[in-house]
Design a protein that fits this description.
Strand order of the largest sheet: 1-2-3
Strand content: 5-15%
Distance between the termini: 36 Å
Structural class: mainly alpha
């Protein structure tokens, strides 16, 4: 007879001091790897190779989301009391404000190199992360935070937000002309804006941020995902009609089909939004449960472990490689579910996901986490050339240590940097 491995034997891992200590050790390892290796003295941050060296020390193209994520994560480090974290925040905020910001036309360039803009387009995805960075920096009193928060809020409101849809447009040229005719709308940029809007609400108390987050969630999840049996549709036309045949060569940001990792990410964000809004929006808990259940039923590889990167609309795996960020989002989603809607399934899924992360994604030799594995869980680099940033993995490690009532910055600040009761 196989040994029992249910909750009665293994319990809720996040209530156990050893597991919380293990998570904090992994978070410290990530901080060590990126804090000491990723800061580019010419501005911004390096993408790192497997050993922690710069992928391109001389010509690194620096996407704004990388700098913004560094600001967010090292603001978390500063709130926890990590020495040196605020220096990384200073470095990132300076680069965003003084280099990514377009002083002529407003907004923020997508990417830079040592000579200036490498891609001068204005992406909703990147602007969402600027809002997150400014909000997180405000929680530690950074001197540039208020100015950046006001600036990015105005840009989002006047350039990106489409009131008739209750969500943002996707992309513009440097001088704010619709890119490629302005016909594309995407859930990914709106999903990350939802995360950032919640952080901005927490940092400022301005409920307009929360109202916008609820509007996006209603469009992307209640209406769109709900209409296709709780699969999060990625690609839409300008009127937010689902485009199941959409194709774009950039498989990192706009892969075809569906992406189970985003179903997991939305699971957590929906529950966070539900909690921040006073648990008054009735559809959110059932939607979160359904999104997670579908991701485990369709996206999880029951044979080898890990989440397939994409599925076709026939629900069969399309891109069968396994990326680190869906595993990170799955662990965080399972924790949020088990805090708000506890069940054996949610707890067992949490343990299952962390077992694969420990076995295959954490690079025990070199530090950091492998960002891409083959279907057989062997490190590979078909999409991600190295170790790009700390964001997904750090949040996966720290989210279970703080109350599931808002973002990490809110939870850590309110707890005075101390994780929930029971730590030793």
């Amino acid at each position: 007879m196989a040994p029992a491995t249910g909750n009665a034997v293994l319990g809720n891992w996040t209530t156990r001091a050893y597991h919380r200590g293990w998570l904090l050790t992994q978070a410290n390892g990530l901080f060590d790897f990126f804090q000491h290796n990723s800061v580019n003295p010419k501005g911004g941050f390096y993408d790192l190779d497997d050993e922690g060296g710069p992928l391109d020390a001389d010509g690194q193209v620096r996407g704004i989301h990388i700098a913004a994520r560094a600001v967010h994560c090292f603001s978390i480090g500063a709130l926890l009391g990590r020495p040196g974290a605020s220096d990384v925040v200073d470095h990132g905020m300076d680069y965003i404000w003084n280099h990514h910001r377009d002083r002529k036309n407003g907004g923020y360039f997508w990417s830079l190199n040592n000579d200036g803009p490498a891609d001068s387009n204005k992406q909703g995805y990147g602007h969402a992360f600027v809002l997150l960075a400014a909000s997180s920096a405000k929680t530690i009193g950074h001197p540039l935070a208020d100015g950046m928060l006001a600036d990015i809020t105005e840009i989002l409101n006047t350039k990106f937000w489409e009131a008739k849809h209750g969500a943002i447009a996707e992309e513009f040229t440097a001088d704010w002309q619709p890119l490629d005719g302005g016909t594309y709308r995407g859930q990914n940029s709106n999903m990350h804006l939802t995360e950032a809007l919640m952080a901005a609400f927490e940092a400022t108390g301005d409920r307009e941020y929360l109202t916008k987050a609820e509007s996006i969630a209603d469009l992307v999840i209640r209406r769109a995902a709900g209409s296709v049996d709780w699969r999060v549709a990625e690609h839409f036309d300008a009127e937010w009609n689902l485009d199941k045949n959409y194709y774009h060569p950039n498989e990192m940001f706009r892969p075809a089909g569906t992406t189970p990792g985003h179903w997991l990410e939305w699971t957590r964000l929906i529950l966070q939004l539900w909690a921040l809004g006073g648990k008054r929006i009735e559809w959110m808990p059932d939607a979160a449960k359904a999104l997670f259940a579908q991701s485990m039923a369709l996206g999880w590889d029951n044979d080898k472990g890990g989440f397939f990167y994409t599925l076709g609309w026939d629900d069969k795996p399309a891109k069968r490689n396994k990326l680190w960020w869906p595993a990170c989002e799955g662990a965080a989603a399972a924790h949020f579910l088990n805090e708000h809607l506890p069940s054996d399934f949610h707890e067992e899924s949490y343990r299952k996901i962390w077992n694969v992360i420990e076995r295959a994604f954490i690079d025990h030799k070199n530090g950091g986490w492998h960002e891409e594995l083959t279907e057989d869980l062997v490190p590979s680099h078909s999409l991600f050339p190295g170790k790009g940033d700390i964001y997904h993995a750090l949040q996966a490690c720290l989210i279970p240590l703080f109350p599931a009532t808002g973002s990490l910055t809110k939870g850590i600040a309110e707890a005075g940097g101390n994780s929930k009761a029971g730590d030793q």
